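Pipeline run #58 for the internal structure catalog. This entry was flagged by the ingest filter as a single-chain record with no existing model, so it goes straight to prediction. Upstream metadata was stripped on purpose; only the residue string is passed forward. Reviewer on rotation: M.T. Logging verbosity set to normal.
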Amino acid sequence: MTQARNGTPPAARTQESLGRVHFIGIGGVGMSAVARIMVARGVPVSGSDANDLPVMAELAAAGARVGVGYDAANLDDAQTVIAGSAIRSDNPELAAARAAGLPVLHRSEALAATMAQDTAITVAGTHGKSTTTSMITVLLQGAGMDPSFAIGANVPALGVNAASGTSPVFVAEADESDGSFLNYRPQIAVVTNVEPDHLDYYGTPEAVYASFDRFAALLPPDGLLVACADDDGARALALRTREQSNTRVVLYGTAGDADVKLHDGGTGDVWISTPAGRFAVELQVPGRHNALNAAAAFAVALELGVAPGAAAGALANFSGASRRFEFKGGGRGVRVYDDYAHHPTEVRAALAAARSVAGEHRVHVLFQPHLFSRTREFAHEFADALNAADTALVLDIYPAREDPIPGVTSQLIADHLGSQGRLVGPAEDAVQAVLQAAAAGDIVLTVGAGDVTGYGPRIVEALTLESPGG
């Protein structure tokens, strides 16, 4: 069984070394998570954001000093500054911090410091990080542990996306999108999958694979890599790790050589088997990808000493994470779900889950591509995934942090859609297109990492108004 570490690598900061901490952009989901944990652990925390977000009132109530709007005076007596990834270099607080010679850390560096004295479990992968991190946390709580955790999505079963627990175990999502997952020092590293993505940052698929090699290399001699045997990239990483180091590796999945083996991860009953026996698992979330995530959580729990029967039973407590096949409501017999999927593999998995829920009825997807660069790289693959739906409606690209790329539009995806797919205009045009396609018993799925998430409630409202007596 993995034991908590007695120290940290020389390069790793400790929470105590940070002193008084100021967060620039404290209202962001990731930033507020770290701030919430630090406040709970007695660290003097201040922070600011451009807008007055609900989480800021929660942090203030917990003891943080929080301000709305950016002003150099907000730094006050801060000794360390944490800057969110969206903060511009000319932000007055950031400029003042640098002029004063204060340490300015990335969110991941601050989170690494809060984990330094705990048994750190970090979950990485191109897809499934938030769900798997959530499952591990919910499982451990159900098994009687009280871990600290930081997750990139709100989790209904937990009530929040971050908390400081009483157990010396810390579960955290590790984001590979900008390479910041290399700032952690895990004792247990979970890799759900490895595929080319975020090529706007990495440049080439080979650079993505190399970054995961470096992530696995962060494990100490007594650490553990938990990797998915069903994913080619994660399996290859596990094999390389076994060949090049003494790091222990546990494979999970349906593959014959999996150490933690998943049986029937489709729409039927689910079992997980280990040398200790075969255990039935009841999952509230659909899809084989979620069954695989559950197997990863099960493997981590066993490493931490949780009895397999208790681990299997505790998985039934997990009801999903925000924006991961999240039920938004319905009307006229139509059910509406929302999913954060923004990579072809994720879209394919979300539609497979929708199909398992729809049964003999139809599935309609409203998809918004995220980033021009990702659309350029994967347009054909997105179309292939979307063609699994009975109706595929595609919105304009959500640019996020990117400037437009000449010639790159959603038409690149539409060119490869079948007869059931087409581009659709924004706002009411998209809502009406969904209403015209959906019938009683059908599933509607809004998909993407941009503002497409706002369409779910609008579709539900329109369906409710059209329902008898609505």
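catalog note: Confidence is low (pLDDT under 50) at residues 1-10.
catalog note: The CA atoms of residues 60 and 66 lie 6 Å apart.
status: ready for reviewer M.T.
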